Amino acid sequence: MSVRSAPSAPMIPFDSPAMIDLRYVKKLIEMLDGSTVDSIEISSDKGMKLRISKSSQQRVAAMTVAPQMAAPVAMTPVLPAGGSERPAGEGVAAAPKAEAPKVALLEIKSPMVGTYYSAPEPGAKPYVNVGDRISKGQIVCIIEAMKIMNELESEFDGVVREVNVTDSNAVEYGQVLYRLDPTG
Length: 184
Known about the structure:
CATH 2.40.50.100; biotin; four-stranded antiparallel sheet; lipid biosynthesis; acetyl-CoA carboxylase activity; fatty acid biosynthesis; alpha+beta
């Protein structure tokens, strides 16, 4: 009767350039491509290092496309059909009765599945609160994914109107975390 021992804890699959497992590297590249993380650096206890980075062109393209998609389409008031046939004074009097057009709120969504943290450490002040004015590039929270703490930066300028997640809760890819008023 033979007894097999359980496999030891997973190790980084390389200790020298000759020991690099290309399947592992390919898997890391696929994971990086499917996330918002810009780069990964891994090192073994033997001094071997592996660094994988996304190109800066991909990051710039992603940053310029996202705000355009979230921008409100029609924010100017539209005249009702036949508005030109009314006397000039009538249109002016009707304006105060009409409800002011609602400003479309911009959404900051989770770029990955993970655990949401509103502050840099337990007990610390949250990065942002409702009513705070934030600017593009400002850190708004941390999403922990696969034991990696990922700081999430705002893609927009605006005032925080909604915080839709509570601290230490799981978030899904694409889940709305914050809503911002761009007009503040």
